[in-house]
Design goal:
1 helix; alpha+beta; about 80 residues; single chain
């Protein structure tokens, strides 16, 4: 069952009336959706409600991690994830 792969950080509030979501990848041209959502999470009192195990939902031969080179020469690896 799909809900077996969802890990809740806490119980959703009873007053939760709206959830804002963004999808990354090819549909997120210029990272407009994910960038806007990242901005809202940073500026509003938002917190993660749950996450899903990426092993069950991503094909890692197609969805590759993003690697960034830091100023000190080290690399940061960011794996795809699903959080809400």
């Amino acid at each position: 069952m799909i809900m077996d792969n969802v890990v809740f950080d806490h119980e959703p509030p009873a007053t939760l009336a709206t959830m804002v979501i963004a999808f990354g990848g090819w549909i997120d041209a210029g990272r407009a959706a994910t960038g806007a959502l990242r901005h809202l999470v940073r500026d509003l009192p938002a917190e993660r409600l749950a996450r899903m195990d990426p092993e069950e939902f991503f094909v890692f031969t197609q969805e590759r991690p993003e690697v960034r080179l830091r100023d000190d020469g080290d690399r940061d690896v960011h794996w795809p994830k699903s959080e809400f």
